[in-house]
Each structure stands twice: as structure tokens, then as C-alpha cells.
Specification:
The protein has about 300 residues and is α/β, with parallel strands linked by helices. The chain contains 14 helices and seven strands. Strands 3-2-1-4-5-7-6 form a seven-stranded mixed β-sheet, sandwiched between helices. The longest helix is centred in the middle third of the chain and has 17 residues.
């Protein structure tokens, strides 16, 4: 699929600027997708620079381009430090992660990411994985389903939804988009139907793909592989992700607990360069409505010798 159809990268100029690219640097695009951000980074690199781009989806990997300065890594970004070691990279100058779901996934009727299409409840980013959304709804207990919907979808009526799903699956499997919609629609607010249905699908997608654990692992490993002065640039699309990224960039831990030395100086391994997240302009949102919820945060690794 052509790159401009597969995905339109959000905050492209702001992201590339935030990386502070040096022509001979080594960079990581942890979420290759349609390759939009990667191509922009490549355009800033000289002959001795290099970009490593990660993606766990074979559809995305098929978008890879040929360039001696470019390496595509067919893997989840949670294995970032392992692969950098494998390629003999001691440190990188910048790491980018765009945590949004590609247009391709939302628009592919066979993947089950969107409630706009009929089809199987799949939602796997990595087609080699065994866990699907249908399997979650078939095998998880009522409490586990409620926890998923509450923690990852932030749905206040998570228990009622979980109860309805469990009762429905006793009659027939809840394994298609249309079947799930029939079960949950009576329990969502008609005035906020699209929003609440999106939250249900978001929660299942996060669970199926282990997105929160993967993000935590990625942030820790990105800090590990960054050189002093290297930049970490992350685009989030919902509050769970943004809270984790903000906390980590502020403090170096997921809780956001900032340690200070005897003199009251912050001891975080990162320096947060964005006091508030960078968000798309009105013009960008008009061109690309799906960028509306994007938030960009940037941090720089401190030099321990300071």
C-alpha cells in the first residue's frame, strides 16, 4: 500500500525538529508504520548517519525502503536494547516513537480495530501473536474483562459492560465486531456513543497487544541506549500513554517521583524540554483530523558528568 495511504504522520516537522538531528548521528524510529517519520529523518542524515526503524507488523515492514543508511527491524520496540546490541550500536543520538495506530489498521476490515467495519475481532498488531480480542472476550473472567475496560478504556461502566459480555457469550461467541456492538450498545450513552465505543475498542487493542507493558519497557530501554545529550521524542494519543511518558521524562520512573540531591537539585536522568506537550495546529487537524489527539513530548538525556 502506498505510504501516503498507509498512514499520515502526525506532527512531522515538530518531531524531526525535536530530535535535533546531526547528519552523522544514529537514530531509531521505534514505530515505522508507513515510513513517514523515517523518510523525514533520512532526509536529514549524511552519508555516515544511520536509522534503525522497528515495526512488528508485516504490513508495515513491507513499506521499508532500500538505503545503505537504513535498517528495518521486524520486531516490537520493547526489544530495542537487544537489537541495538545485536547490531553493535553502543549508543544512539535520538529515539522516536509515534504510538498512534496507523490508518491502515483502522481501515483494514479484516483486522477488527474499528467499530466502523464488520468482521472478526482480531486487533493484533503482530499477526504471529496468539492472543486476539475475540479470545480475550471468550476466555477472560468477568473481573478480568472489567479491569481491561476500566484500566485501558477508562470506562466508568466497565463492570456492567463486562457482565453483559459474559452473559452474551454463554448464548453465542462474542467474536465479531457486529456481535460486540450488539452486546455493548445498550449500555453506552447515546450522546457519546462514538467516544465510548472507541474506548471499548481501545481497551481491547491495548490488552491484545500488551501496549502499556511494551511502552514501559521501551521507555526504560530508550533511556539506556541514548547517548548523553541524545533526544527522546514520543507522540501519544490517549491519557494513559501520555501520563506514563510525562512521568518518565520528568523523573526517569513510571510514577513520576522526582528525586533531589542534598541541594534540592533534580536528579532525573532526563531533562524535559517540553513543559507542555506540543499539539497539532488547527491547519494540521484540518488536513489530518486523526491527528487531533496527538501530544508530542521531548526530553534530553543528561550527562552524568555534569
Amino acid at each position: 500500500m502506498p505510504q501516503d495511504v498507509y498512514h499520515i504522520p502526525a506532527l512531522l516537522e515538530e518531531t524531526v525538529s525535536g530530535l535535533g538531528i546531526v547528519s552523522d548521528g544514529i537514530y531509531v524510529d521505534a514505530t515505522f508504520g508507513g515510513g513517514g517519520h523515517s523518510r523525514a529523518i533520512m532526509g536529514c542524515l549524511g552519508s555516515s548517519g544511520h536509522l534503525y526503524s522497528f515495526d512488528q507488523d508485516e504490513d508495515a515492514v513491507a513499506n521499508a525502503f532500500s538505503d545503505s543508511r537504513f535498517t528495518i527491524v521486524y520486531s516490537n520496540f520493547r526489544f530495542l536494547s537487544n537489537f541495538m546490541r545485536y547490531y553493535g550500536v553502543d549508543g544512539v543520538d535520538g529515539v522516536l516513537a509515534d504510538l498512534g495506530v496507523s490508518f491502515h489498521h483502522f481501515d483494514d476490515k479484516d483486522r477488527g480495530f474499528s467499530f466502523r467495519w464488520e468482521g472478526a475481532l482480531d486487533m493484533r498488531m503482530n499477526q504471529r501473536s496468539q492472543l486476539t480480542a475475540a479470545k480475550v472476550l471468550a476466555e477472560y473472567s468477568e473481573k478480568q474483562i472489567a479491569d481491561v475496560l476500566y484500566l485501558y478504556g477508562e470506562l466508568k461502566n466497565a463492570r456492567r459492560l463486562a457482565s453483559a459480555i459474559v452473559k452474551a457469550r454463554d448464548e453465542s461467541p462474542v467474536d465479531t465486531v457486529e456481535r460486540l456492538l450488539a452486546v455493548v450498545r445498550p449500555f453506552v450513552n447515546p450522546k457519546q456513543e462514538k467516544k465510548e465505543l472507541a474506548q471499548v475498542f481501545q481497551a481491547l487493542r491495548i490488552e491484545v497487544n500488551g501496549e502499556i507493558d511494551a511502552l514501559k519497557s521501551f521507555l526504560q530501554q530508550a533511556l539506556k541506549v541514548l547517548k548523553p545529550g541524545g533526544r527522546m521524542v514520543v507522540i501519544t494519543y490517549h491519557s494513559l500513554e501520555d501520563r506514563l511518558v510525562k512521568n518518565f521524562m520528568r523523573s526517569g520512573n513510571m510514577q513520576g517521583e522526582v528525586e533531589k540531591d542534598f541541594f534540592g537539585r533534580v536528579m532525573s536522568p532526563l531533562k524535559l524540554l517540553t513543559s507542555k506537550p506540543i499539539v497539532p495546529s488547527d491547519e494540521e487537524i484540518e488536513r489530518n483530523p486523526r491527528s487531533r489527539s496527538a501530544k508530542l513530548r521531548i526530553a534530553e538525556k543528561r550527562d552524568n558528568s555534569d
